[in-house]
Amino acid sequence: MRLTEATPPPEAEAADDAPGGDAWQPRARRAGTAPADGAYDIALVVVHGMGAAYKSQILLEWAEPLLARMDWMARDRIYGAVDSDGVRLETSDLAGDAPIVGATVTFPKRRATTPDGDPIGPVERITKRIAIVEARWSDSFVPLSRSQIFRWAAPFMWRAVRRMLRLFWATLVMLPWYTLVEHALTPRRGLALLLKALTFLFDLVRVVVGFAVYLPLSAFVLAVAVVLTPVLPLVSPLLLIPALKKAAESVIDGIAESIGDVTAWKETPVRANAMRLVVRQAIERAKALVGDGDVHVFAHSQGAAVSTFTLFEEMDPNAYNVRQLTTVGAAVTLLGRDKWRGRSDVYKPVQNWITARKDQDRPVQWANHWAIWDPFSSGPIADDPRKARERWRASYFPRRTTGALGPEEHAVHNVSQPIFDHTYYYLNTLQVVEPTIRNLLGPDFPGPPPEVAYLENRLNVINKKSLGTNLLASVVIAALLPGITAVSAFFATVLVWLASPFALIGDLLNGAEPAPDATAGIGFLQADGMLTGWGWLVAGGLVAALLIWVNQVITGYVERTLLWDRCPLPVGWWLGLTSIPRLVYVTGAAVVVWFSVTQWWQIADPWRWWLGAAFVVVTLFCWLEARFAPAPVVVPARTAQEEVKRIVADAERPLSLSIARRSTAYSRTLGRRQELLVPEGWWAEAWARAFHGWPEKQAQAKATAGAS
């Protein structure tokens, strides 16, 4: 619905009891009544992943970040927004039988631009009504017994481990190798380091370091799998031992609760159908809420497998106005479909999706988001592993796109940690939340030029990679620092110093009795002025906790300034300032490793120089890697060979950090944001003066506007 001013939509009516009658409530929600059919323009169905989900849990998990970011984007003045734009909540029914969050969003319509980037024509406003509902299938079936779950879990675990190792191999080894090959074929002017030889050396070090990290990581994963293989089938019998049951029952029940859903989906078709029924009913409810409007489905993990099968094998998406399927951390290829015993059904989700699109005026679109360290999605969606590998490479280098068809691919960076990447998609504002909002609100929703969008994504990736680099450096420092002789003596002295006040208190309370020996009381932590093994472990844990906490605080602050400031730092300043914490962490790790090595081994002078040079090279690489590492790009959906050819043609001149920084689109966008900057508080004013030319640019903009 288009409005020339930011006014309430025509169907809104003044509330009878509102002062002056100027407050309004949409007819979608009045006096506690349920939303009427056709009350909304768009409905989003969110589907949770494996594990128990409480009522409204998945609804809140996604509704809050989506609506918060939607309000921020809709009120962006650079596109002509005014104070009355943004999100207005209509209802948040979280405790009813059918939880729903309803909202109205008003935003300036995207305008065409001149070749110079100036918008054409007056600002129009659009208002859309959005309903968000949940499909909570975790209570739709009777859970399996522990013995059923854990008997099935051991062989399934090895399939998941193989996929995990393939993903780690691709991320740590194959991506650096592909980058080396890609840079070898790139003209010198397109290289970030400018010199071919220097670029080759940097890429070669990346391959070596990635392989060196992959070896212990894969060995650890395999060791855990080997240990769990005989343990999992014995879990239920072991719980017959009272002492073990008391100690481990809650943990085992938690594990069974999560993987039990997967077992039910794969092994019991009746229970699997009960899960799909919940998704079908939620889609039917969403269709009733929007009438002729659009329905979007958003599914995570196992919910993606359930939703994909439901939409493309059991329903006609077009009949329910399903226009968009968004999957995050999708376990579609890991879980596949339910299987009747004795059947060998071949499941091809991509082909099913392409078939469902055939001869449709508005076919359902599919966007798939996968985190680079998420072992459950393990990369792009394809009908066989070979095509998945091809699509994975194309997510970084679209020019290498092959005939492997599939949905729109978004390789994303969540928290740069294996396993945890699977659970934090809702915190990925730029790469997951924003694209979902743009899909919901359609092409009329304004957005940045391609060069600016590229820069935002690239800087976000650098920040997330810095998080991972600093995390590894923190672990190295914490593991080795207490073992250095001087540091160990210092920590032991601090322990004695901290224990002294307690000894003084004990002396006062003991009266005539001898005071307790404070040093002996902490003897398990220090002895003879040095840390013991337990002391080393405790000190290392405290150091790790401190360093990781500081790292997360810094990364969170940088992310907020990048994503939530109306006028972020210029790219050059951002790259320089944000590299300082990374330099401190990697240098600290290098120093600690150097002192540890020279303390434990006697190294002759000639080799000491070579070893020192190697340390310098690796330290510089770890510091610069996040800056020069390849960043994933969004690859459009491929449903026919003609689309593959178009993607390859469009990617022949890829953007880079240097090209995007020098673009007119970026300089104009930054200049416009600087003109609109309104700092609040002394710190914001100091920041604006130092980096954005405030208030001179505001005065210049007013003078130009007055003259025109």
From TrEMBL:
Keyword line: Membrane, Transmembrane, Transmembrane helix
Protein origin, superkingdom: Bacteria
Keyword Membrane carried by entry: yes
Region (Disordered): 1-32
First and last residue of the signal peptide: none
Bilayer-spanning residue ranges: 164-181, 193-214, 220-241, 471-499, 533-550, 571-595, 607-624
InterPro entries xrefs: AB_hydrolase_fold
Protein name: Alpha/beta hydrolase
Source species of the chain: Agromyces terreus
Lineage: Bacteria, Bacillati, Actinomycetota, Actinomycetes, Micrococcales
